[in-house]
Structure to design on (543 residues):
């Protein structure tokens, strides 16, 4: 692959790292993480070997939704730092080969954004149509049946201008009107502004949103079940998931690709069907990457995971790069959801994430096996889930401070400062201790990333299921054989495995020796060209 081509697709096979800025490292003693803290702890990321970081929202915001309610798209939240701090971060990270992605929120603004303040001043405001306004239904009452993320009506009455405005999330997050060309132009300029400053791309919030039905039709009842089904009994076909949004992404892709190197668009594509996910990639002219939530919510079993991986690869257009992640600031941490805190499972999950073809995204703390933290009601900060209505459960559980060391402050802030969210109780789960221990989760995670790069250059493009999964899942990717034992019993691998490069537990057998995989253990083996990998149907217990 030529140099230009490699540079243009750096995210193919990359390991990205989602960094929740407020919880990463506090350098000014206010209990909130900040941009200087990221600069101060870049060594951890370089040492770990990730290729880029996605920063949770950094723009000014009244923090009703912790930055997902933006009041200025070209600024930096004063609690997190300054524009100079962000420039310095992009520069310092860049010199270490780490790309910086920002979080862009195009579906809605804060009600404190000057556009909305102006728009709500009266019906003849020049900014009126930046937002979605509606009169009461004939006979009075709400314009339609749409509900917001808390289960309340998605319409708020604006006394001053005598109409309702739409908010799919909180009352303080009015939805933008993407039918208006001026909104498109505003966001083009926002993209260019940050690209000029050297950001490598954006994670795009609520990418399934943006457009709303022009006729504001009622949402039909939801018939699906599960974590990705429409909430509160309604199927979100009219207040989101409109086809017109893809034209916006095609436009942004052109803008991103005019830059050298091209910039990356990674969508928060909250859809339950993989066909719908594929559409975000377009014909190689839409988003370059799209988060795969059916994978996030799959059961931690060989059958479920291999099924969703296989169906994903079959659904995506040729050349599209899949994305594998298992934790984030909304859905909680995989060490809890998948692993219930069982370290064997955490190690195995990391092996799986590191070996699937495409791009892997870790969430801060995944690398040390941080679990969800039960934040007491009185200390919770997430307004979206405070009332207990939101089926996502309280999202603070996965936003607690990074655990840098075993001290009372966890190394996150100065001693005596109260962090914005409480530290997890498991002080033994921390970076400093795990960095000293070659058998720790952190050391394993680093080895996995290093191996991925050493063996494949990071560009894992192929995937082949080696047998129908029973309790074990065996696949070939990046020229390696991966065997994951997702079960409570040992599995003897009677096949001849090529040189085993890495095991999450147990001894690494010599080439050609029979191998016993402990419960919830996995291996990566080099596929020697002459050694056929005997399908694991030959294993006891694999039937
Ligand atoms: C996305 C964000 C989430 C936020 C919501 C509204 O889902 O990930 O944290 O609350 O959008 O912006």
């Amino acid at each position: 692959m030529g140099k230009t081509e490699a540079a243009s697709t750096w995210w193919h096979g990359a390991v990205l790292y989602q960094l929740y800025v407020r919880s990463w490292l506090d350098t000014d003693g206010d209990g909130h993480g900040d941009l200087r803290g990221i600069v101060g702890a870049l060594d951890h990321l370089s040492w770990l070997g990730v290729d880029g970081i996605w920063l949770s929202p950094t723009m000014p915001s009244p923090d009703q939704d912790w930055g997902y309610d933006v009041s200025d798209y070209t600024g930096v939240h004063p609690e997190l730092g300054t524009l100079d701090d962000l420039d310095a971060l992009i520069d310092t990270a860049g010199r270490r080969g780490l790309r910086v992605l920002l979080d862009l929120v195009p579906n809605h603004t804060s009600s404190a954004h000057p556009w909305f303040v102006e728009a709500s001043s009266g019906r003849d405001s020049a900014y009126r149509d930046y937002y979605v306004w509606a009169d009461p239904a004939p006979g009075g009452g709400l314009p339609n049946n749409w509900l917001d993320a808390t289960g309340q009506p998605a319409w708020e009455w604006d006394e001053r201008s005598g109409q309702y405005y739409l908010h799919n999330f909180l009352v303080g997050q009015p939805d933008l009107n993407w039918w208006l060309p001026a909104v498109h132009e505003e966001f083009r300029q926002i993209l260019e502004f940050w690209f000029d400053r050297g950001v490598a791309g954006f994670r795009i919030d609520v990418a399934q949103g943006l457009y709303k039905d022009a006729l504001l039709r009622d949402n039909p009842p939801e018939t699906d079940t599960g974590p990705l089904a429409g909430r509160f009994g309604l199927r979100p076909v009219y207040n989101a998931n409109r086809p017109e949004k893809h034209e916006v992404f095609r436009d942004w892709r052109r803008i991103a690709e005019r830059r050298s190197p091209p910039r990356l668009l990674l969508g928060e594509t909250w859809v339950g069907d993989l066909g719908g996910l594929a559409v975000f990639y377009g014909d190689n002219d839409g988003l370059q990457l799209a988060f795969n939530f059916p994978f996030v919510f799959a059961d931690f079993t060989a059958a479920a995971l291999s099924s969703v991986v296989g169906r994903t690869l079959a659904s995506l257009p040729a050349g599209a790069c899949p994305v594998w992640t298992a934790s984030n600031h909304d859905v909680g941490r995989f060490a809890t959801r998948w692993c219930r805190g069982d370290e064997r499972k955490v190690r195995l999950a990391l092996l799986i994430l590191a070996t699937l073809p495409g791009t892997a995204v870790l969430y801060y703390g995944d690398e040390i096996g941080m679990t969800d933290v039960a934040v007491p009601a009185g200390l919770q900060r997430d307004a979206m889930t405070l009332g207990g209505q939101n089926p996502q459960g309280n999202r603070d559980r996965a936003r607690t401070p990074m655990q840098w060391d075993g001290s009372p402050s966890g190394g996150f802030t100065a001693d005596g400062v109260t962090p914005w969210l409480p530290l997890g109780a498991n002080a033994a789960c921390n970076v400093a201790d795990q960095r000293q221990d070659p058998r720790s989760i952190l050391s394993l995670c680093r080895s996995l990333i290093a191996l991925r790069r050493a063996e494949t250059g990071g560009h894992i493009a192929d995937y082949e299921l080696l047998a129908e999964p029973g309790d074990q899942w065996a696949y070939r990717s990046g020229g390696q054989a991966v065997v994951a034992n997702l079960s409570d019993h040992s599995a003897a691998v009677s096949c001849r495995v090529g040189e085993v490069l890495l095991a999450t537990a147990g001894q690494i057998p010599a080439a050609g020796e029979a191998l016993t995989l402990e419960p919830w253990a996995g291996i990566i083996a080099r596929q020697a060209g002459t050694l056929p990998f005997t399908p694991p149907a030959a294993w006891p217990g694999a039937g």
Notes: The CA atoms of residues 444 and 540 lie 28 Å apart. The pocket of alpha-D-glucopyranose is lined by residues 65, 68, 105, 169, 205-206, 268, 329-330, 384 (CB under 6 Å). Residues 181-196 form the longest helix (16 residues). Confidence is low (pLDDT under 50) at residues 1-8, 528-543.
